[in-house]
Backbone:
């Protein structure tokens, strides 16, 4: 089975600071990570390769500084990596992003399965996997926590929904979005780590991708940021105190009682 | 922007009833349609008669009910094809969907099919002086939100998480129900369902009065939080880090990609306070936060903040409350 895993490199959200005067985000000195849900997608792809053979190729879109993150993915177990990197890809919304990634999948060629994390921890739109599937005109399944190939050659997945899980089958090729937190990322051993440092990350620019320039980046993005504003936060008391645990607990208990939110007796244990 | 086709809301049916989020969106969409000077259309697939009649009570000018036995289960391909057909025929300027699992599956596919823009997980919807729909989306890091428009493509597709808008009251207002009964056959399905296992926690945090919420700082020790929530007759919620780490079920995630909650009190333990999370608690009556870091942004969203280790504080709190 030939798989592609889409990896996004995202800033650690807790390190991004906001300049409220300029209404800009200060990302200087912010460390990045591979989007956690994408690691779940990678683990699922590796498990399928363990069972059915084939190759796992990483696909990402971003600046050359993303290369080391793709090497981490190779060290985890991927066979190779493709980085789509060009200024023309910049400023892309979900339509242009999914188009560009789908062109990357076409360029890799012969792909049976594309796996993505179900959402990114920065943009968080959860829309790109479905978009890739539509650009490729193939099957899709979102919020998947299990996937396998049946003896009939179909893709069988389990989707986790609000009220239960559904198991469905569909023909390959397909795009799946993998639920974050699914599976345990595997241990990186030293040999693979050392090998990954020598691996080639294939960097592809817009010209080499041969994509329609009108559909890339800012030009290919129908949504536009019309304005930025401070989030209107409700008026809070903002009382911040440092107390010993016993006193801190008493302070919280006092507030909860004042709000009338402490039932008189402890309710019976849940059945 | 011409608005002959109006504002459309895709109302999701599940097991024969409407998802609450769809009605919440309809309530807000009425104001959006009025501000744009256009009509409001609610569209539903599957469609038992009673559902369509129920939908008609929430302020839309028209309900379009697409009915066929094959629509009893959500299928990406069939639903996308049918919604595409309706949208191309009706040419709405705006299409709103609830950001449920199936709703997002559909919205993302349809937006690319129609080569139009999609704004995901808005926390407010406004109409600007140029009569454009602006969907506001919080940015990471805190403090800022971006207003997104889709000026040159239509429809502007927007998804909204559960709990963002209040549940509207039924109104008595004339509403036409138009039935669409397409002829469909199973070859139009993109997938076959093998099985469905109902489950779940069945938890709906948007209805809880007391929430005990854990983040990264809990290091996964949610038993402690469960004890406190149980004592207070409340529910446990979590940040994205906590659900991504598998510490608690995904349907307990609070925030931009989880649910927006309205409890009387939220006790937030070990959460840093990224804006994607805090949008989910800003409608809480009272917010208590415990965090080891005195500079944690969560304290900007709290009425009462306690600097310290959450473990000892929660343990003592449970003991003190037990003495009631």
Residues:
């Amino acid at each position: 089975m030939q798989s592609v895993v889409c990896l996004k490199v995202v800033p650690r959200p807790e390190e991004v600071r906001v300049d409220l005067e300029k209404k800009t985000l200060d990302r200087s000195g912010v460390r990045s990570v591979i989007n956690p849900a994408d690691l779940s997608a990678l683990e699922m792809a590796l498990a399928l390769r363990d069972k059915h053979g084939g190759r796992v190729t990483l696909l990402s879109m971003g600046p050359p500084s993303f290369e080391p993150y793709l090497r981490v993915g190779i060290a985890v177990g991927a066979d190779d990596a493709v980085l789509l990197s060009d200024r023309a890809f910049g400023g892309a919304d979900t339509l242009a992003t999914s188009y560009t990634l789908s062109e990357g999948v076409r360029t890799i060629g012969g792909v049976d399965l594309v796996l993505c994390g179900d959402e990114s921890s920065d943009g968080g739109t959860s829309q790109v996997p479905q978009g890739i599937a539509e650009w490729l005109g193939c099957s899709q399944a979102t919020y998947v926590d299990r996937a396998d190939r049946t003896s009939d050659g179909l893709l069988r997945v389990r989707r986790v929904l609000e009220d239960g899980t559904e198991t469905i089958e569909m023909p390959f090729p397909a795009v799946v979005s993998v639920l974050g937190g699914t599976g345990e990322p595997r241990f990186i051993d030293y040999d693979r780590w050392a090998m990954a440092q020598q691996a080639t990350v294939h960097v592809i620019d817009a010209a080499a991708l041969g994509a329609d320039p009108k559909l890339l980046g800012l030009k290919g993005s129908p949504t536009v940021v019309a304005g930025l504003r401070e989030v209107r936060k409700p008026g809070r008391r903002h009382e911040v105190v440092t107390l010993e645990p016993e006193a801190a607990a008493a302070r919280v208990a006092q507030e909860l009682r004042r709000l009338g939110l402490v039932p008189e007796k402890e309710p019976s244990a849940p059945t | 922007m011409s608005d002959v086709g109006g504002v459309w809301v895709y109302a999701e049916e599940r097991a024969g009833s409407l998802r609450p989020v769809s009605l919440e969106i309809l309530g807000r969409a009425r104001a959006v349609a009025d501000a744009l000077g256009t009509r409001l259309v609610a569209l539903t697939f599957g469609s038992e008669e009673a559902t369509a009649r129920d939908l008609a009570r929430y302020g839309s000018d028209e309900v379009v009910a697409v009915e066929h036995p094959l629509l009893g289960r959500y299928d990406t391909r069939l639903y996308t094809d049918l919604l595409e057909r309706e949208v191309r025929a009706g040419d709405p300027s705006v299409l709103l969907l609830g950001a449920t699992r199936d709703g997002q599956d559909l919205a993302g596919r349809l937006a690319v099919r129609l080569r139009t823009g999609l704004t995901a997980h808005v926390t407010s919807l406004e109409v600007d002086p140029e009569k454009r729909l602006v969907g506001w989306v919080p940015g990471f890091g805190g403090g800022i939100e971006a207003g997104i428009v889709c000026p040159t493509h239509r429809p502007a597709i927007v998804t909204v998480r559960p709990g963002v808008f209040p549940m509207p009251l039924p109104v008595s207002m004339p509403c036409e129900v138009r039935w669409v009964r397409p002829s469909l056959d199973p070859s139009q399905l993109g997938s076959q369902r093998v099985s469905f296992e109902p489950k779940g926690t069945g938890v709906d945090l948007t209805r809880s009065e007391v929430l005990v919420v854990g983040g990264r700082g809990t290091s996964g020790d949610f038993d402690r939080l469960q004890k406190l929530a149980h004592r207070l007759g409340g529910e446990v919620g979590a940040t994205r880090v906590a659900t991504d780490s598998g510490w608690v079920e995904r349907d307990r995630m609070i925030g931009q990609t989880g649910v927006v909650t309205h409890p009387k009190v939220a006790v937030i333990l070990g959460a840093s306070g990224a804006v994607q999370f805090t949008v989910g608690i800003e409608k809480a009556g009272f917010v208590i936060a415990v965090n080891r870091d005195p500079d944690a942004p969560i304290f900007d969203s709290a009425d009462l903040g306690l600097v310290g280790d959450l473990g000892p504080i929660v343990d003592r709190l449970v003991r003190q409350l037990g003495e009631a």
